[in-house]
C-alpha cells in the first residue's frame, strides 16, 4: 500500500501459508534458546560496553533499522485484516480520521537537528496503510477471492476478474509548515478526502502528539482513550500543524482497475444506498447533475447518500488541483536544451 512500483500480490497465499510457518519457526527457535545464558554472556565479559551501547542505539532508533519499515507495513495489514477484526462501521465513519502516533529518532534528523523532510513519507506509508486496511478490510477480503465472490465482473466477458488484489500509490505531495525536533512525538491524522473512477484520495495532517483530540471514538477498543473535553481548546490547528500531505491510491485486480466504490461500499458498508448506484453515469460517479447546494456540511446530520456525495465533491475540489500536477511530466525535454552536469556523491 506504500509504493507505486509494488503491489501486494500473493497476500492471499503469503498470509495463510508462509506467515504461520515464519511465526512457528521463530517461536520454536525462541523456545530452544537458553535466554539466561545468552543474557549473561551479553552483559558480561569483554566488549560488554560496546554491546550495551549498540543495543541502546538500536532501541532508540528501531524505526530506521533494516526491515523495520517492511515490518511496520505488513504488521499493520495483518493486524487489521487477520489478527484483529475491525468493527463494521456505517457511512458516518467514511470521512473520519485514523490517528497514527510516531516520533523522530536520531537517524531521521538532518543537519538542522529537525526531522528530515524525506522521512515524512515513510511514516505516511504506515498511516495510510492503517486507514485503508481498517476501513476496507471486509471488501478487500471479498475482492481477494473475486473468482468465488464475483464482486467485480469483466465488462467484456461478464465473468469475474481474476488476479491478485493490489493497492498502489499513484502520487503524493507534502506541504511542510513547521519542523519536528529530534525525538519529538507526533501524530498523523489520515482520512478519506474523495474518490473518482480510478483514484482514492487521502489527506494526512501531521500534528504534535495530543495537540488535538477527537470528540468521540468510533472504535470500541479506543473507548478508554481521552476525548476532547469542554475545557479543551478547539480550533487554532493551523498554528500547530507540522505538515499536510495528499496521496492517491489505485486498486487493482491483476491489471484491471477496480472502482474505489467497490472497496468503500459492498462488504465494508461505508456507502449508503444511492439512486442509480455509485458507479453509474458517464463518469461512473453517479448522477453528477443532482443539485446538492442545500446540504450543509458544517452542521451535523445523517450520512445519507446526498451528504456523502456532497463531501466527496468538496474533497474533489482539492483533489482536482492535486491531479493537475501530473502535467509536470510534460515539461521534461529529455535534455534537448542541454544540462548542467552529472555528479555522484
Automatic annotation (TrEMBL):
Full protein name: Capsule polysaccharide biosynthesis protein
Family membership noted in the UniProt record: Belongs to the lcsJ thioesterase family.
Transmembrane segments annotated in the record for this chain: 12-31, 52-71
Top-level taxonomic group: Eukaryota
Keywords tagged on the record: Membrane, Transmembrane, Transmembrane helix
InterPro entries: HotDog_dom_sf (IPR029069), THEM6_lcsJ_thioesterase (IPR051490)
Short name of one Pfam family: 4HBT_2
Organism this protein belongs to: Cylindrodendrum hubeiense
Amino acid at each position: 500500500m506504500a509504493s507505486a512500483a509494488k503491489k501486494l500480490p500473493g497476500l492471499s497465499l503469503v498470509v495463510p501459508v508462509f506467515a504461520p510457518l515464519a511465526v512457528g519457526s521463530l517461536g520454536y527457535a525462541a523456545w530452544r534458546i537458553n535466554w539466561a545464558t545468552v543474557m549473561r554472556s551479553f552483559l558480561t565479559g569483554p566488549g560488554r560496553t560496546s554491546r550495551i551501547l549498540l543495543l541502546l542505539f538500536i532501541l532508540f532508533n528501531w524505526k530506521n533499522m533494516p526491515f523495520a519499515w517492511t515490518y511496520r507495513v505488513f504488521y499493520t495489514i495483518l493486524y487489521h485484516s487477520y489478527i484483529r477484526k475491525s468493527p463494521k462501521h456505517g457511512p458516518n465513519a467514511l470521512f473520519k480520521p485514523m490517528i497514527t502516533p510516531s516520533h523522530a529518532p536520531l537517524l531521521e534528523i538532518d543537519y538542522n537537528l529537525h526531522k528530515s523532510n524525506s522521512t515524512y513519507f515513510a511514516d505516511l506509508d504506515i498511516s495510510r496503510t492503517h486507514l485503508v486496511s481498517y476501513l476496507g478490510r471486509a471488501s478487500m477480503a471479498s475482492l481477494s477471492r473475486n473468482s468465488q465472490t464475483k464482486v467485480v465482473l469483466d465488462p467484456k466477458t461478464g465473468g469475474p476478474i481474476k488476479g491478485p488484489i493490489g493497492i498502489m500509490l499513484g502520487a503524493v505531495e507534502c506541504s511542510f509548515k513547521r519542523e519536528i525536533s529530534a525525538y519529538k512525538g507526533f501524530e498523523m491524522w489520515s482520512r478519506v478526502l474523495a474518490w473518482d473512477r480510478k483514484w482514492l484520495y487521502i489527506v494526512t495532517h501531521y500534528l504534535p502528539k495530543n495537540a488535538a483530540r477527537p470528540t468521540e471514538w468510533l472504535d470500541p477498543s479506543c473507548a478508554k482513550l481521552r476525548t476532547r473535553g469542554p475545557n479543551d481548546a478547539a480550533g487554532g490547528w493551523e498554528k500547530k500543524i507540522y505538515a499536510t500531505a495528499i496521496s492517491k491510491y489505485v486498486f487493482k485486480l491483476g491489471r484491471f482497475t477496480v472502482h474505489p466504490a467497490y472497496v468503500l461500499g459492498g462488504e465494508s458498508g461505508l456507502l449508503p444506498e444511492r439512486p442509480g448506484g455509485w458507479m453509474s453515469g458517464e463518469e461512473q460517479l453517479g448522477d453528477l447533475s443532482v443539485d446538492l447546494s442545500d446540504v450543509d456540511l458544517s452542521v451535523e446530520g445523517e450520512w445519507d447518500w446526498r451528504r456523502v456525495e456532497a463531501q466527496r465533491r468538496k474533497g474533489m475540489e482539492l483533489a482536482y488541483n492535486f491531479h493537475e500536477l501530473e502535467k509536470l511530466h510534460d515539461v521534461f525535454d529529455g535534455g534537448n536544451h542541454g544540462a548542467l552536469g552529472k555528479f555522484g556523491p
